[in-house]
Amino acid sequence: MLPAQWHRALYRLAHRGRVTVWRFRRSRLEGVQVLALDGQDRVLLLRHSYGSGKWMAPGGGLRRGEDPLAAGLREFAEETGLELAQARLLQFVEEDLHGACNRVNIVAGRFSGQPRADGREIVEVGVFPLDGLPEWMPQGRAGKITEWAGWFLAL
């Protein structure tokens, strides 16, 4: 197994490579973001070792032919070491991702237990109250997270 710092460096290198491909090809991507709430209605956010390093919801790309709900469950488990219960597909949004059109499926659910950062892909995991989200997030994301949480809690 590679030392964690080499692993993080390879993630950053691979991320730069795929961003270059997305910009060149103007790719159409499909991914998932997971809104995960605990029993106190706090949201789980994390920071990746590559990209902007900002706090964001767990998530990633869909595999070819993969169901968005299944992708949300898989990505959440991979990035936090936890399972997502009561999972629901809330909606999808389309956004620009480095010049590519990215369809993001929003999956929401409940978690319990202590999340973990693997120190390789994920460098930090935190649980935040909806009225106390961190400032260092992608622009407009805090408002979206609060909106999605409202929808999920109303179900």
What does the model show?
Helices cover 32% and strands 34% of the residues. It is α+β, with helices and mostly antiparallel strands and 155 residues long. It has a 4-stranded mixed β-sheet. Strands 2-6 form a two-stranded antiparallel ribbon. The longest helix is centred in the first third of the chain and has 22 residues, at 4-25. The mean pLDDT is 88.
SS-derived structural category: alpha+beta
Oligomer state of the chains in this structure? single chain
Q: Tell me the span between the first and last alpha carbons.
A: 43 Å
C-alpha Rg (nearest Å): 15 Å
Unreliable stretches covering 5 or more consecutive residues: none
Main sheet: strands, sense, barrel: 4 strands, mixed
Number of alpha- plus pi-helical segments: 3
Order of helices and strands: HEEEHEEEH
Lateral arrangement of strands in the main beta sheet? 3-1-5-4
Instruction: Estimate the mean pLDDT confidence.
Output: 88
Q: State the helical fraction.
A: 25-40%
Percent of residues in beta strands? 25-35%
What's the total count of β strands? 6
Key attributes of the depicted protein:
single chain, two-stranded antiparallel ribbon, 4-stranded mixed sheet, 6 strands, 155 residues, alpha+beta, 32% helix, 3 helices
